[in-house]
Amino acid sequence: MPNTNSCPPSVLVVASSFYTAALEPPFLNSLGPRTAEVSLSSIPYNQLHTFLLDPGSAIPEDTPARVVLFLRLEDLIRFELAAGTQGRTAEEAGVLAFRKRSEEFLEVLGRVARLRLAVFMCPSGRGAYDLKFLGNGLRVAEHKIMAELRRQQRHLVIPWTEFEAARMPENCFNPSGDRLGHVPFSPAGLKRVAEFVLAQWERLPVTVLAKRAESTSSALEQFLATLETEIRTAPLAPEDEQQAVNVVRHTTHFVNLPNRKWMEGGIQAMAADRPGGEAWAIRVRDRFGDYGVSGAVTFGMEENVMRVGLLFLSCPVLGRQVEHAVLGWLANVAEQRGAEWIEVPFIAGRDNQVMLKFFKALSREPASGGDQLFRLRVEGLSERAVRQAPCPAIAGTILNSLQVDAVPLSV
Amino acid sequence: MTQCPMTIEDKIRDYIFRQYPALQVKGLGDLDPLAGVLDSLAVLGVVGFIEPEFSVELSASDLTDENFETIASIARLVEKLSASSVK
Prior knowledge:
The complex is a heterodimer. Chain A is α/β, with parallel strands linked by helices. Chain A has two domains: about 10-220, Rossmann fold, CATH 3.40.50; about 225-405, Aminopeptidase (3-Layer(aba) Sandwich). Chain A contains 15 helices and 13 strands. In chain A, helix 12 (about 320-335) crosses helix 15. Chain B is mainly alpha-helical. Chain B has a single domain, classed as ACP-like (Non-ribosomal Peptide Synthetase Peptidyl Carrier Protein, Chain A, Orthogonal Bundle), CATH 1.10.1200. Chain B has four helices and no strands. Chain B starts with 7 loop residues before the first helix and ends with a helix. Chains A and B meet through helix 7 and helix 8 of A and helix 3 of B.
């Protein structure tokens, strides 16, 4: 019987711990004529936890979905690796961060209730970074994750050795692409991976999400409620500038001015460009660790408008309602300073649609220039930002407990 | 008969042809624009080729449209990076 629904009758969801969009073209090519029956959806890596715990955000109810998760454990400490792990202190910090993040990932996996996954275990240590400092930590974490997946008895684990045995191309890896674009595979590798996975279509577990009762709290809500997320903001100290610059250089999803070359002093300089300009550092921590300076904002006040220069939050803190609480805080600052509007310039980049979507949902009236400048009415903005969060009660708690240090934290 | 050694441009072109065999039919000159041929992912593939091939290391700031505009501009970037790495 022909399908009368405009939606294809099944979904292939591709998620990964690295730059997921790189998997889209090879999967679409490999799907070929099947795209009439199968729609492809990809989950950005910074939304992986959110998706695993709340798959309804990407999979329509009552639609058969095959979910393939490409998991490479070193990506759990992607930012630490990019910042450098030379020297004993940095190595120890890297080991600690890896331990905490793998614990967190295991906890997320343990809470996955509605999905059946095909998990493709990608090998660590074949990308841009030397992981010797992690010792056998990688192997142990990999073992624990595979054990958890098998314990749940509804997932399929595809070990890398299976792929290797199935004519893996010689030039499969791309350390340069990993370092510069978070894409660990070469074009040939990506193509072969997609072909390999799709050749096993019948083997991939199928998820069908049934409608969930409104009153039932999701696994995501339960997880976020246990995170104990804390945000601290303080004027950006010169000592924090280097860290903030390092973070913004590696931030692609939640940043309003992507593709800029940021040099040390650049954030302070941007603030100084505006009359009465200020630069603030945003620090985030939760029970899995301290993420340190995870974002920054610069702004100046002109009459009744708070004009934002730069605003960014690093990928590891997204999806924890941090973005909603930070905007709530910024709205409160604007209100205290007598502003009626906040203006945020926005330049579209390769990956910052996450931020675009965030502001589009909040901005009822984008100013001239369309998406190039968002105008947000300050009145009620803090509440709106919180209400827009997937779990508003938790975002509200984070905002209410947000600490503002009048002096730089590192003083 | 002696064979001319491949230039940087030739090697880059050879890599691109291997990745996109269809381009071989049309040909690709040193100054032909690569816009529409190389998207951002393909650029990472080119970087993955040129770094080990020419023993250079690119930084994120080298991934500009100008540097990847043509085969000639990629070759110039390789030459610049090679020169700075031997100083």
